[in-house]
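Record 1 of the preview.
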Amino acid sequence: MTSLASESPALLFDRADGRPAGWAVSPGLVPYPDAVAAMERRVEAIASGEAEEVVWLLEHPPLYTAGVSARPADLLVPDRFPVFESGRGGQYTYHGPGQRVAYVMLDLRARRRDVRAFVAALETWIISALAELGVSAQVRPGRVGVWVERSAPPREDKIAAIGVRLRRWVSLHGISLNVAPDLSHFDGIVPCGIRDHGVTSLADLGVPATLDLADAALRAAFQSTFGPAAPAPAPA
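->
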């Protein structure tokens, strides 16, 4: 089955005016409530025409987030890490050191007002970035996120998650890519509500990628999918 991710989202989500999105990278671990508050402020400013789009790359300390479809039974170890309610789509997910989170604040009014195609563009972005790093990845019908096939034993593991929402056609939240997190930290939840498949990372696959290398791949793939990106300060 062909996903929308195999189409050409570059034609769908490159701004007609050619204006670059900001590209911000924060060092260290950013507390989740601080990041969400900054993202909310920036999205409101974008929607009001007072700020430019931005993609914000960061790491969080270990935590779980619950999307709008999260089931309480999928929080297996409630006291392991802090748990935050999130307005994004999806269910439970983990964030922590070694995982690259990208909060994607794009104005779909200036691109295309098509939620399904936007999610497909995010899928293509991740898949293209992983290809830059030598990893073949796919999407699967009925399973949100990006997956890799494993051979020993044969299985499919999730390497990247997607969870977004729109406010006045400006996107909030975004993606997370497992570079080298502690995968045992996922044991406290049923990631994204999917019990029959596992999680993996670039390190788990034997790819010697650092966050800096992952960032470079993400930026190159973003520019081939969404258009130009220029260095920018992190949202405040």
